[in-house]
Design goal:
Strand content: 15-25%
CATH superfamily: EAL domain
Oligomer: single chain
CATH class: Alpha Beta
Shape: globular
CATH topology: TIM Barrel
Distance between the termini: 40 Å
Largest sheet: 8 strands, mixed, barrel
Number of strands: 9
Number of helices: 12
CATH architecture: Alpha-Beta Barrel
């Protein structure tokens, strides 16, 4: 990490150069029913004065290394809660907003207080917030993380495991941490029509989740054949460019008003 990169992020935070986009998640319809928007994942973008819109993959690592992910993540959490409250008050079908937490942010020591404060400021019911945790968060300092997770769960906050299957997947921690949802990584999902191995892996994840009463979300769904196969496999929800790319709040509202149509 160079000092310049850190300083650029500090300036971005000071000048409100970050923005949240939202990608909808849809419940797969059964027996000919249409797929229904039910939630949205908040995804951060950086409006750089010279480079334009920068994706998180280019700056999150620097933010984590420098510790700036803590204030940036706090901003994102508060912003997402406020937006969710607006949509719910307006009667939008998006009853849940998902926010990613990094390991650095989670281990900062005040994640419990931060989450409750963000919910209170927005007037958002805790059941309308979902925190997406990576597997690495659950494997580091397990007892401390478990205590924080249990306290959040007691308040009704929902939890999901992001990119499930790419790390040290363990059925034991799914039980201990009492998560609500598994997000199946796109690296498996995208190949289920071509690879019997990937299809078997995804099917096993869906069956495990069902046995534990967890919801499954398939990431990276980009064409109708893929969605149809996931529906037949019993997957609950999907997310991907087949339905919508990450959108600004106003664009997502327009997408909903058009009936949440498939983009292809």
């Amino acid at each position: 990490m160079t000092p310049t990169a850190k300083e650029a992020l500090e300036r971005a935070l000071e000048h409100d150069a970050f923005e949240l986009y939202y990608q909808p998640q849809l419940r797969l319809g059964r027996a000919g029913e249409p797929d229904q928007p039910v939630a949205a994942e908040a995804l951060i973008r950086w409006h750089h004065p010279e480079r334009g819109l920068i994706m998180p993959g280019e700056f999150i690592a620097v933010a984590e290394e420098s510790g700036l992910i803590v204030p940036i993540g706090a901003w994102a959490l508060r912003q997402a809660c406020r937006q969710a409250a607006v949509w719910i008050a307006a009667g939008r079908p998006l009853r849940l907003v998902a926010v990613n937490l990094s390991a650095v942010q989670f281990h900062s020591g005040n994640i419990y207080e931060l989450v409750l404060s963000a919910l209170d400021e927005a007037g958002l019911d805790p059941g309308c917030l979902e925190l997406e945790l990576t597997e690495s968060i659950l494997l580091d300092d397990v007892e401390r993380v478990l205590t924080a997770v249990r306290r959040l769960k007691e308040h009704g906050v929902r939890l999901s495991i992001d990119d499930f299957g790419t790390g040290y997947s363990s059925l034991a921690y799914l039980k201990r941490f009492k998560v609500d949802k598994l997000k199946i990584d796109r690296s498996f999902v995208s190949n289920i029509l071509q690879s019997e191995e990937d299809r078997a892996i995804v099917l096993a994840m869906i069956q495990i989740a069902r046995s534990l009463n967890l919801t499954t979300v398939a990431e990276g769904v980009d064409h109708t054949d893929l969605a149809a196969e996931l529906r037949d496999m019993g997957c609950d929800e999907v997310q991907g460019y087949l339905y919508a790319e990450p959108l600004r709040p106003s664009e997502l509202e327009q997408w909903l008003e058009r009936g949440g149509r498939i983009t292809q």
